[in-house]
Amino acid sequence: MSRYGEYQFLVVEVKDGIGLITLNRPEVLNATHARLHWELTQIWRDIDHDPDVRVAVVTGAGRAFSAGGDVTEIEERIKLSKADSFAASIKTMREASAIVHNMINCEKAIISAINGVAVGAGLAVALMADISVISETARLTDGHIRIGVAAGDHAACIWPLLCGMAKAKLYLMTSDFVDGKEAERIGLVSRAVPQEQVVPVAMEYARKLADGPQIAVRFTKRALNQWLKLGALTSFDYSLALEMLNFFDIDVDAGVDALNAKSAPKFPSIKSPGSIVHV
């Protein structure tokens, strides 16, 4: 029996071998709160086990793919007691890891139709897909540095392979935005197309893969993902642990406050360099 009806913030439609997954919190630009974050850990296993799905396409409802993590939940988390905050960090780390690993281990091809802004866990889903189609006007950013934490989630794993180390360091260490055209130019995504063509083009690729030799397509994905499994995932796991460690740093308070105020952050570590722990 299909579990798709149990999802609260993912809408799944299966037709002719293609599973269309839509992140469905359009009122907050599909930001990933606790429930949606958890659902993104589960959906890839369900897709993998569904005999009616040969290819998955993932997109966002409304005008965004996903605006990243829910800032309110981040604020609540940094106000927790030390023990509760540690437990929350472990849970988040486990789920963030599961999103990446489960997408890699899903034997079916995954195509992202990036119809608007993509940040945080949403960006992880967008870029860990096997084929990514983005709107030319959509904007991407790995915003971790902006709130004072290391670029975890997915970035250390996949960005250097997609766009090279120089561009990866530029965008991950600055949290600068990249639009769809530039993302295609540097190799961060597969295709950039006009906004109205994003989902249709993604579905064209899905149709081609769904009608192709299934074992050969899946074996090709498995072989290419050895580049991730034999090296890049080590960097990913390391970056994820460092990201969680950063949530205990006072810089995060300043980063979240600035994000809410829509102002430039003033990180305490800038004023007190002697307090920085050298590792």
Structural description of this entry:
This protein is an alpha/beta fold and 279 residues long. It has one domain: 2-enoyl-CoA Hydratase, Chain A, domain 1, CATH 3.90.226. The chain is built from twelve helices and ten strands. It has a six-stranded mixed beta sheet, with helices on both faces. A four-stranded mixed beta sheet has the order 4-6-8-9. Strand 2, helix 1 (34-49) and strand 3 (55-60) form a beta-alpha-beta unit. The longest helix has 24 residues, at 82-105. The protein starts with 9 loop residues before the first strand and ends in an 8-residue tail after the last helix. The model has no long low-confidence stretch (mean pLDDT 92).
**CATH topology type:** 2-enoyl-CoA Hydratase, Chain A, domain 1
- The termini sit apart by 50 Å
Strand adjacency order, main sheet = 1-2-3-5-7-10
Total E-strand runs: 10
> CATH homologous superfamily?
2-enoyl-CoA Hydratase, Chain A, domain 1
- The overall pLDDT average reads 92
Large-scale geometry = globular
The amount of beta strand, in percent, is: 5-15%
Q: How much helix, percentage-wise, in residues?
A: 40-55%
Which structural class do the helices and strands define? Answer: alpha/beta
Query: How many domains would you count in the coordinates?
Result: 1
The helix count comes to: 12
| Largest sheet features | 6 strands, mixed
The radius of gyration over CA amounts to 18 Å
Query: If classified by CATH, what would the architecture be?
Result: Alpha-Beta Complex
